[in-house]
Structures are given as C-alpha cells and as structure tokens.
Design a protein that fits this description.
Blueprint: H1 20-23, H2 26-52, H3 60-70, H4 80-91, H5 99-109, E1 116-120, E2 125-130, H6 135-148, E3 154-159, H7 160-166, H8 171-174, H9 179-184
Parallel strand pairs: 2-3
Antiparallel strand pairs: 1-2
Protein name: DUF2313 domain-containing protein
InterPro entries: Phage_Mu_Gp48
Pfam families: Phage_Mu_Gp48
Length: about 190
C-alpha cells in the first residue's frame, strides 16, 4: 500500500474498501488519492457534529447553540469549563435526591474536582466547600441545590481556597480588609 494514499484519518482509507485486485491499478490509486481528503473532511465534520451534541464534549460553538436554546446568559470571562458546569447544573435536577445522588451529581458537574458536602441535620443546613471553583460555578451550584433539596434546609457555599489561604493570618491582620476584599482576594498580604 502506498503511503501517499493515506490521509489524515489513517484507519478510513477508501482504497481499503475496494477488492484487492482493484487496489493494484494506478488509475484507481489516483482516484482514491484525490477523493481521500474529501472523505476525511466528511468524517471530521460528522465527528464534530456528534461532539457538539453532548455538554461534556461540546466546544464553544456547541455551548453557544445550547445557551441560545435554553436562554442562558453567560459572562465574557466564563471559561468553557464554567459554562459546561452551569449547563449540567441547570439541566440536572433530580426528584427526591439522596445525599449520595447529590454527591454523585456534584462530582459529575465539578468533573471529579474535590469538594466537601456537609449536612448538619440538627440545624437543617447543607454546606458545600469547593476548593477550585469560580464564583459563577459556586453560584450555579447553590442554585442547583436550591432546586433539589427540601425547602426547610439552608444552603451555604464557599470557595475553600479562601479558608486555606487565610488560615495563616491573624484576625488583626485580616481586620484591615473588608469582607468583600477578602472574598474577592483583593488583598496585599
């Protein structure tokens, strides 16, 4: 087999679909060589369409289409990862969720990133701490939890890195900053 017949998609060669005796003719090889790029482009387009159908694999183009369909507004600074998480949160409501179901859904949404889901049964409170989240993901997570957990539970959420990073400072040092400056990380420590 001539290497010049191979296109971008090495496992889908037109010439391989022909009977062996036809693969030997020079004219047939040339015809297949000319048509191979068009077939590769068609396969690439088909794969791209399939990829754009699923939130976890959609690119910016697919996410824009879904945002238009579901009337979701995004911010310019939202990354693709943030947008995917927001879709999964918006579309992933569950009837009568258990703690395990909620935990699994959050694990899927946060794409395996570490998080802490704490339930205080005596105070009817649910807290979630996410170490590596943007504010948009955190807000979308709270909105998702508000939809699925019972109304008598209070929800608190925060980005855990703030607790870890600020643990080394005294109350006196942090007292020089407002709550907003601390939560946004706008401090010169």
């Amino acid at each position: 087999m001539d290497d010049d017949l191979r296109g971008d998609d090495m496992d889908r060669l037109l010439i391989d679909y022909l009977p062996n005796f036809m693969q030997e003719y020079k004219q047939i090889k040339e015809i297949m060589k000319v048509q191979q790029p068009q077939i590769n482009a068609a396969w690439h387009s088909a794969n791209k369409v399939l990829q754009e159908q699923y939130i976890n694999t959609a690119t910016d183009e697919g996410l824009r289409r879904l945002e238009k369909i579901y009337n979701i507004t995004i911010k310019e600074e939202d990354s693709i990862e943030t947008r995917r998480a927001m879709f999964l949160l918006k579309l992933g409501t569950v009837d009568n969720p258990t703690l395990k179901v909620i935990s699994n859904k959050l694990n899927e949404i946060l794409q395996g990133k570490e998080f802490y889901l704490i339930v205080n049964y005596s105070r009817y409170a649910v807290s979630i701490l996410i170490p590596t989240a943007t504010q948009a993901i955190l807000d979308a997570t709270v909105e998702y939890l508000r939809k699925i957990i019972p109304a008598n539970l209070t929800i608190t959420a925060d980005i855990l890195t703030q607790y870890i990073a600020l643990g080394a400072y005294t109350h006196e040092t942090l007292g020089a900053y407002t709550h907003e400056e601390i939560s946004k990380g706008d401090m010169n420590l």
